[in-house]
Amino acid sequence: MAAPKLTLYVDVVSPFSYLAVHVVRNSPVFAPCEVTYVPALLGGIFKHCGNTAPIMVKSLPLRCFHSHSSYPARFVYPSPQPRSSRPFSDKSTWINLERLRWARLFGVPMTEQVPPGWPQSSVAILRALAALSLLAPEKVGDVLAALCHASFACQQRVSTAEQFLPIFSEVLGKEMADAVAAQCTSEEAKKLLMVNTEKAIETGAFGLPWFVATDVAGKTECFWGFDHLAQVAAHLGLERPVGHGGGEGWKAVL
């Protein structure tokens, strides 16, 4: 019988992509799966879908809502709290809270602070991962995990070749890392990254991480977001931890 298959589209700029990569790689739940890690441009997906990057979503004072809303006034607080006193004034605040909650629940190493300069462009590093896909696709998950860990758990900058190539070298060895360095600015690597991003969009992606899951019967379904990890496992027919000692994370996911 064929093994369940999971294709995981990720961008290293996304903390939720890091969470997905870490759990899929380290949880025994996904051990029976054939997993393919695919670098894709989160910014390109947002642009195609007309989405605003979540960290750019800002809330308006309730008085603005009142002045533009067609809802009756009883649905609006007459004296809104000042922005500084509201706990979740912007979506970026909520995202930061959520990434830390999930990291604690699943035991994923992650610092309280976001990486220095975050979010930075991930184009160069994704092209390098695309180049690695051309040279040694079985190594993409190893390097991806190391890069995300360096960024979100160790506060390292990883957006430029000078910053991320030493991590490639540490994981792959100097010879393979040099081959990636020679290939990462090639037209082949650039084209593959765009093809990956387009494939994610074609399957319905509007954000990352994006899961394309095929069970042993050949039925494929897609899922978005780390918080739907249990639905991914359920579709694939994977056994999740239950009861005492099953892990707080699995009890919390959808």
The share of residues in extended strands comes to 5-15%
> In terms of quaternary structure, what is this?
single chain
Count up the helices.
11
Computed Rg: 20 Å
Can you characterise this structure?
The protein has 254 residues and is α+β, with helices and mostly antiparallel strands. Helix content is 47%, strand content 9%. It is built from eleven helices and four strands, in the order βαβααααααααββαα. The protein has a four-stranded mixed sheet, sandwiched between helices. A hairpin with a 5-residue loop joins strand 3 (210-214) and strand 4. Helix 5 packs across helix 9 (187-202), helix 6 packs across helix 7 and helix 7 (161-172) packs across helix 8. The longest helix has 16 residues, at 91-106. The chain is globular and about 45 Å long.
Output the keywords.
11 helices, 254 residues, alpha+beta, 4 strands, 4-stranded mixed sheet, single chain, globular
Task: Provide a quick synopsis of the model.
Helices cover 47% and strands 9% of the residues. It is built from eleven helices and four strands, in the order E-H-E-H-H-H-H-H-H-H-H-E-E-H-H. Helix 1 (15-26) links the parallel strand 1 (5-10) and strand 2 (34-39).
